[in-house]
Write a structure and sequence with these properties.
Elements lengths: L8 E6 L4 H9 L10 E7 L8 H11 L5 E7 L6 H13 L7 E9 L5 E9 L11 H4 L22 H26 L9 H4 L11 H39 L2 H7 L2 H31 L4 H19 L2 H11 L8 E7 L2 H4 L2 H4 L2 E2 L9 E7 H9 L3 H14 L7 H9 L3 H15 L10
Antiparallel strand pairs: 1-3, 2-4, 3-5, 4-5, 6-8, 7-8
Helix pairs in contact: 3-5, 10-17, 11-14
Keywords: Conjugation
Family: Belongs to the MobA/MobL family.
Protein name: MobA/MobL protein domain-containing protein
């Protein structure tokens, strides 16, 4: 019969340092507990002192040296019944384990072709049990062939020439292939061949039933490897550039001048002249500006008084006051009223011109604050007839207590920035008057 069934057999030695992670992987515990492809876990041939497989493998990790376990990965052909798969698990302990402690786990995930990928993972100890009852410490002691009861359990390490070791491994492959063919023949399915494809005369590479998730992880690892290789290449280039720079530094000035081209030398000298001219021009401009800003006290005082007059005249315009109220009260362009939170003692804090424009719909007090609404247009008309000090004090109240709208971060920021608006405007006027650049009210309040 033509052998077309998939056969995968893999055996590998594990040391004690990597054993704990391997046990977690095949039993889907620890960091691998979220994977849902585990079917069953079986253990056998455990010594008397080991009450569980985990206790045995923890002792192996602590006490074993060299080869701590043989790891098997065995593919199970598709279309086998659950009873046949259970018989294969039983025969593994009878044939491949050969009286050695083992843990066998059956996994079933999705293959690359999105079909069932059923396979076995097994860990087998290299120590073969005998009739002697030993403690844990004696179990891992050195084997004494002449006095077996006083030594440890015999350890099979498969030492010897390479051809001999390959012959032993191929014998294990044949033994497992015979167990598979027994079940495949009973089910009427194609048989497997333990030989390699080249020995069978088949010219192709082996095909793995790889999990799609594993393919994604492999691509990620490959991408990270490419990134690391790129970083190494860039580091090599940078190291080469630094080495070239060191060579150039070690050159004498005479050697460096001999490598310069006449055109490059002329461009370098021209750039140096241009930079010197630019520095000189900046210095002259700075001196000219400083001289133009110098003036006697009378001129400065006159400019300051003119700017103050323009400031007072603009404060008498209702439309300008309305714009300031909207801006510092964080009101929208079309809003007719402004919400304002006033302290409970109104008369002691709020000017009369603001109290006359406030409408309080709810007389109840919240947190010692009265919530009212100001008619913006009416307040602007009243302020245009008030004194300059009253205008400034009213705008300060609006800045400090006008908290609407709260969700608008930009509005809240504007309110915070407007707390000292009056003093900032006065400083701006004085600065412009001192520099002779006062042009009236081309500024925010």
């Amino acid at each position: 019969m033509k052998t077309t069934a998939h056969f995968h057999f893999r055996i590998k030695n594990f040391g004690p340092s990597a054993l704990s992670d391997r046990v977690d992987y095949i039993t889907r515990t620890g960091v691998y507990r979220d994977r849902d492809d585990l079917v069953v876990v079986e253990s056998g041939n455990l010594p008397a002192w080991a009450t569980s497989a985990r206790m045995f493998w923890d002792a192996v990790e602590r006490r074993e040296t060299g080869n701590a376990a043989d790891s098997f990965i065995l593919a199970v052909p598709r279309n086998l019944s659950p009873e046949a798969v259970a018989r294969l698990r039983e025969r593994f302990g009878q044939t491949l384990a050969q009286g050695r402690p083992y843990t066998l786990a059956e996994h079933c995930d999705v293959a690359r072709d999105y079909e069932e990928n059923r396979h076995f993972h097994a860990l087998v100890s290299p120590r073969t049990l005998d009739s002697v009852n030993r403690s844990e410490a004696q179990f891992f002691a050195r084997y004494r062939p002449k006095h077996p009861r006083s030594g440890g359990v015999r350890k099979n390490t498969r030492k010897g020439p390479k051809k001999e070791r390959e012959k032993i491994v191929f014998g294990i492959r044949e033994q497992w292939a015979s167990e598979l063919n027994r079940e495949l023949e009973a089910a009427g399915l194609p048989l497997v061949d333990p030989r390699s494809l080249s020995d069978q005369g088949i010219d192709r590479k082996p095909i793995r039933r790889q999990n799609p998730e594993a393919l994604v992880r492999a691509r990620e690892i490959q991408g990270r490897a490419r990134g690391a290789a790129f970083k190494l290449r860039m580091a090599a280039k940078q190291a080469a550039a630094r080495a070239d720079a060191m060579v150039m530094i070690r050159e004498t000035p005479l050697q460096a001048r001999t490598r310069w081209d006449d055109r490059d030398e002329f461009a370098r000298m021209l750039d140096k002249v241009r930079r010197k001219k630019a520095v000189e021009l900046a210095r002259q401009t700075k001196e000219r500006v400083a001289q133009s800003t110098r003036g006697d006290d009378a001129v400065v005082l006159q400019a300051r008084e003119r700017a103050q007059a323009l400031f007072d005249a603009r404060l008498r315009r209702p439309e300008e006051l309305e714009r300031l109220i909207r801006h510092y009260g964080c009101a929208s362009a079309g809003a007719a009223t402004l919400r304002i939170n006033m302290p409970q003692r109104i008369g002691a804090v709020i000017p009369e011109v603001l109290m006359g424009s406030v409408h309080i719909p709810d007389p109840r007090i919240y947190n010692h604050v009265v919530v009212g609404h100001v008619a913006i247009e009416s307040l602007a008309r009243n302020l245009s007839r008030a004194s300059r000090g009253t205008i400034e004090e009213t705008l300060k109240i609006i800045v400090h207590h006008g908290l609407e709208p709260v969700p608008d971060r930009r509005a809240v920021k504007n309110a915070q920035q407007g707390r000292d608006a009056v003093s900032r405007a006065q400083d701006e006027i004085e600065r412009q008057a001192a520099t002779g650049k006062a042009r009236g009210w081309n500024m925010d309040f």
